[in-house]
Amino acid sequence: MKKFTKTVRFENDHFGAIMGYEDYVIGDNMISRVYYVEGLGHNLFSVAKFCDSDLEVAFRKHSCYVCDTAGVELIKGSCGSNLYTILVEDMLKFSPICLLSIAFKNKSWLWHLRLNHLNFGTINDLARKNLVRGLPRLKFEKDYLCFACQIRKSKNIPTNPKLKTPT
Fold first, then answer.
1. How many domains does the chain have?
2. CB neighbours of 131 closer than 8 A, spacing ≥ 6?
């Protein structure tokens, strides 16, 4: 991800810091400069970014479509509560995508997940030695055990041996 320090303004006049951007590929088409906004729990695509990538965007009463110049539908979305959302199933046809996006109140847990549930001591070492690009230099602290780590750390439950039937 390339660093980029600007802000975006939301409908409620709040601002979000743009921490970086990457190019996003859908099939043979590339959408350039898709922004990563700090604290935002969803990925947002700008209609202008689709158009800059020579894609066509159409909005209907209950749906939206993104098509390439040949008219091939790349993405289909639906509208609910004044928000157009993209169906994951349609996007999976073209490239792998993030299936879960969670906003965290602190960066410790965000980086714990980004680094595949790496323990906090190791994350602190990586940050202190500046070994991971983009990893902030702060004290990463664990205030609870995450569910995935709890399952991984649990011992195997002993099973009853099979009963032998007399012959």
1. 2
2. 125
